[in-house]
Design goal:
Helix content is about 50%, strand content about 10%. It has helices at about 10-20, 40-50, 50-55, 60-75, 80-95, 100-110, 125-135, 155-160, 205-215, 220-230, 240-250, 270-285, 290-300, 300-325, 335-340; strands at about 20-25, 145-150, 165-170, 180-185, 230-235, 260-265, 325-330. About 30% of the residues are buried.
Length: about 350
């Protein structure tokens, strides 16, 4: 295993630490080991739950794959499906209040999470908490001034509280306590076992549209400030969020000021075989018999071509993010994130 750090990346992260402007940005990958659903799974869970008349006749294990197939084949974006699910919820319950729907999403979010997650091992979230703990213990003030998360859950707050670190979940524009570390929930906050606080939840297509258009929305202001004045370290994020990419473009100054940790694009031997079969079947569509025989001779080299395409995809991904001011730190395994984070704190 090896961490592929761009030239000067570690020095830049150390400088941001010393200057107290290192801000972790956290995505769904942080929460996944604790049993919380990924974005796709959460939307599908709510869609199926609110469209039970359509799915109830099918064996439960087929329900989500059927919904995913529909999404992929008819180009439904997840935000638009979430919007449909929200409308269906209003019809089914007769309740159009925002608060009621937020509580409902919260119940779905934690539905399959055990009361005490059985995790004795370290995770990326605990590695982030370790970094914050070192930051909070500095005599001159915290090196990590804030954490930004696009997740609804309160897992980080709970972890930090077990370490007796003063933390404040930020989910609206109210004044904050300077003595507590702000954890900024830019898309909303759904604490476990509590009613959802009265705040915006950025979950459906119309939510995203309003969020993108409100330039003075508290979260937009916070995100712009962090991206302009801090060094962001993106962890557990796909970087596909269109609003985040828009803000990165808006704040980019032609240099790479931020970093994202990405797992290398790889496929197992079995996954390569499946991918080669699908590519070959698609390539054979519509060919005449003579052409099909010719194509069969070329099929043997498909798995090698797939490997080259994986490298090409990584190069494209790196270049696109670089144009938005983000350098990519490639890792082989998520366990390497902890090693990376321990190398950042410095007294010099």
């Amino acid at each position: 295993m090896a961490i592929d750090l761009p030239k000067g990346a570690l020095a830049s992260l150390k400088t941001a630490w010393r200057e107290r402007r290192l801000v972790p940005f956290l995505g769904a990958g942080i929460s996944a080991p604790y049993g919380l659903p990924q974005w796709t799974d959460l939307v599908m869970r709510i869609l199926i739950d609110e469209s039970w008349q359509e799915f109830d006749d099918y064996w439960k294990n087929y329900q989500t794959p059927l919904a995913v197939w529909m999404t992929e084949n008819f180009d439904f974006g997840l935000e638009s499906l979430a919007r449909f699910a929200k409308s269906s919820y209003a019809v089914n319950t007769g309740d159009r209040r925002r608060q009621s729907f937020n509580d409902y999403v919260g119940r779905q979010l934690y539905e399959k999470v055990p009361p005490q997650p059985p995790l004795a091992r370290a995770t990326t979230l605990t590695a982030v908490a370790d970094l914050i703990q070192v930051s909070e213990q500095l005599a001159g003030g915290r090196a990590v001034p804030a954490v930004v998360t696009l997740n609804f859950d309160d897992l980080l707050e709970r972890e930090l509280e077990t370490r007796e670190i003063g933390v404040e979940a930020v989910f609206d524009g109210r004044r904050r306590h300077a003595s507590r570390l702000p954890v900024v929930h830019a898309h909303g906050f759904l604490p476990r076992g509590q009613r959802a606080p009265p705040s915006d939840l950025i979950f459906t297509e119309d939510d995203y549209n309003r969020f993108a258009l409100q330039t003075i929305h508290w979260a937009q202001v916070d995100l712009l400030g962090f991206l302009r004045n801090s060094t962001a370290l993106f962890i557990g994020m796909s970087m596909a969020d269109t609003n985040l990419r828009r803000l990165l473009d808006a704040t980019s100054n032609g240099r790479c000021n931020h970093y994202v940790v990405r797992k290398r694009f790889t496929l197992s031997s079995g996954e390569r075989t499946v991918a080669a079969r699908r590519i070959h079947q698609r390539a054979m569509t519509g060919l005449k018999p003579a052409e099909r025989k010719k194509m069969q001779r070329h099929a043997q080299g498909l798995e090698g071509a797939i490997e080259r395409m994986l490298r090409m995809a990584a190069n494209i991904d790196t270049q696109l993010l670089r144009e938005m001011g983000v350098s990519t730190i490639w890792i082989d395994d998520f366990s390497e994130i902890a090693d990376l984070l321990t190398r950042i704190p410095t007294r010099a």
